[in-house]
Design brief:
The complex is a heterodimer of chains A (about 500) and B (about 325). Chain A is an alpha/beta fold and about 500 residues long. Chain A has 18 helices and 21 strands. Chain A has three domains: about 240 residues, 3-Layer(aba) Sandwich (Rossmann fold), CATH 3.40.50.300; about 170 residues, 3-Layer(aba) Sandwich (Rossmann fold), CATH 3.40.50.300; about 70 residues, no CATH class. A six-stranded mixed beta sheet of chain A has the order 6-7-8-3-9-10, sandwiched between helices. In chain A, strands 15-18-19-13-20-21 form a six-stranded mixed beta sheet, sandwiched between helices. Helices cover about 75% and strands about 0% of the residues of chain B. Chain B has a two-stranded antiparallel ribbon with strand order 1-4. A two-stranded antiparallel ribbon of chain B has the order 2-3. Classes of the chains: A alpha/beta (about 500), B mainly alpha (about 325). At the A-B interface, helix 2 of A face helix 8, helix 9 and helix 10 of B.
Amino acid sequence: MTDFIQMTGIGKSFAGIIALKDASLAIRPGEVHAIIGQNGAGKSTLIKILTGVYRRDAGDVRKDGKPLAVSTPREAQDAGIATIYQELSLVPLRSVTENVVMGYEPRTRFGLIDWKAAHARTREILARFGVDVDVTRQLGSYSTAIQQLVAIARAVSLDAKLVIMDEATSSLDDQEIETLFSVVRNLRDSGVAVLYISHFLDELYQICDRVTIMRDGQTVATHVVAETTKLGLVSEMLGRDASEIQAAGLTALSGGHGNPGEVLLEAEGLRSKTGLRGTSFNIRKREIVGLGGLLGSGRTEAARAVFGLDAVSEGRVRHHSGAALDTPAQAIALGMGFLTEDRKADGIIPHMSVRENITLAMLPRLKRMGAVDRERERELVAHYIDALQIKTSGMEQPIRELSGGNQQKVLLARWLALEPEILILDEPTRGVDVGAKFEIQSIIRKQVADGLAVLLISSEFEELVEGADRIVVLQEGRSVSELQNPGITEGALINAIAHHHERSVA
Amino acid sequence: MLDTNSFDLRRFLQGGGHSFGVWVALVAMILFGLLRYENFGSAYNISSFLNYNAMFIVISVGMCFVILTGGIDLSVGSVAAFTSVIAAYLSPFGIEVALPGAVLAGLAIGCLNAIFVVAMRIPPFIATLATMLGAKGGALVISGAQTISIDWTSNFTKLGMENAFGLLPWTIVITAFVVIALWVVLERTSLGRTVLAVGGGEDASTMMGLNVNRAKVFVYALSGGCGGLAGVFLASGFGAGQPLEGVGWELSAIASVVVGGTLLTGGMGTVGATVAGALLLGLVFNILNFENGRGVISLSAYWQMVIRGGFLFVVILLQSQLASRAKGVTQ
């Protein structure tokens, strides 16, 4: 079979930093093709070259065997290549129909937009996906899942022959992912190729036919997915030996072997307006306490309450020092830190440099005779860039230019630089690729061995099961049971969550 | 799910935004005027009200387009002052020359804004602040800071005095034409939808393959052209080019747009609601004049401004209340 898209020998560098060298990619018509690789491996750069966002420095791009020259997203669309980005690609303020037809609106005889036809076409395409929504409503009033499907509907309405999906499932729930997958299979069956970028290896096995692995700006290999193992893929991605990874486990946390010390923080019978209805747990020195439970079980709310972000109506939070703990300022003063879930909204300051983002919270401590001690600041930043292996062209690089995983590391460094006693981590590895995840987890484990206490919230059972020393299972705002590592399995955790669900129904 | 086929008045008026309040306030205001003042509904009052407010409507609609892209145009008032002088100088050649001449002059300044904003990537606030000062200075230079009388013998005078087709003054007819044309552009053309998309998300629009720069050039040029037309109306209304006029007009225009429920950050709003906003702000003065005419109270122009400010606040408050209630219903 001839390839639909063939990219060979692609090279690209930004301001002297090489992003791609001799990268290649071949996509056959009607296949679902995955690209995997660590952050900074060059996946997005390669795709942006294909979609006309960036221009390549070297190499050759062919479509159906003929040279393909696109220099704008519009030209790529016209060539049958549609991209669904994780964010930014649609306009939430405008209607569903507008987002589907924008730029290619059906016209009446007078050259004006034929809204009737536009709505009908949009409805028809969405109906094919089994989606029945009011297409005249604002796109933003619908769930992320619907928005993703609308983006795909746009691609379909443009007669795309290749649909590129960048982290399409990262904010969907299981049901929504299933719908998305059935749409993807639909596309494949109608001869449309799908290029699938995801950090979730499990998804690959569910939906993809072939996989291309990238590392350090180069294409390492392309395999038929059915002929690979998860371990094999990870080892190729990281460029490490498979046995080495197996010894460490797929996550780098491996809980339950520590030697926890005295109790640092104790939450007792917390109730709050945010939905806590009797949550109790404690955190000891040198241990990771996981909060397990379904979405909406009160995990984040419990963390917010102990950090003083939300008021508690009943129950109490006791810090070992006996000091009051009612506001985030008090919590921070007591040596607590909180790495929030939403790094875009709560965490990074995009225009500031990596250095500024790391030292923002600790500038008062860096003061010497009234002025910030620049030398110490730089030493400290250099230390954390090195310790956390943050990939950056230098400490003055704006943080927005870093990949998601590296941004997360910077935020982690910000808190670690404060040398906290207790650190709350809410989804610390979400949206982060496997390699960076591994690194972040190792860093956390190392800090814990040195005495840090961690409250870990994660919707990935794997991360909790392998990582936490103890897991407090939450359900509808109540702590219902506690599991102790070593010995917790994913099955045991799911059981603990499900079991209590049944009991609460009875 | 909503039945999409049934006609929904509220949604029609809102155009997906939250502009219901402006229509409620406008109708309430008109009813109040009709019931309280004998001559409020007279042909003379309506005609002279619209004739005077035509220039504000025109610049408000132009401003609406700019704000929809997420930009701002501070230069419109100065542009109107500048082009009113141009129109006065051109008036001896007749309306056929004076009107297009002044509009083209406004268009040229609008294009200058577009170059600053699109090609040179200067923030719109700064770029149009510069042209605001420049146009203001230009108006003073070419007029010698004097009002320039129009040529009373030419047909330029027809604009404000004579009725088109024996119905309404030319000013009002031209304004209505511009408003309808721009309404069609916004609602029914690709360019208009791109304007909205750009304000809703510039990066997303680029990714979708839309011509973002073309939309931006269009709105600044349009706003300049609207300023030019307002200048023509100004000259004809006052019988002279007015280099000192236009101060604060841009803020009135922004107020009309905002009262009309258009998001200042762009992406959502309609031409109709903007016109309603401009009419509403004009009506406040009109009604205060009637109230003064009853002889019970006597408010100075300064107090009228204070009242208008307070009124603006009330409408915006009403707007946000209605919007939050509408949200509660749909969710």
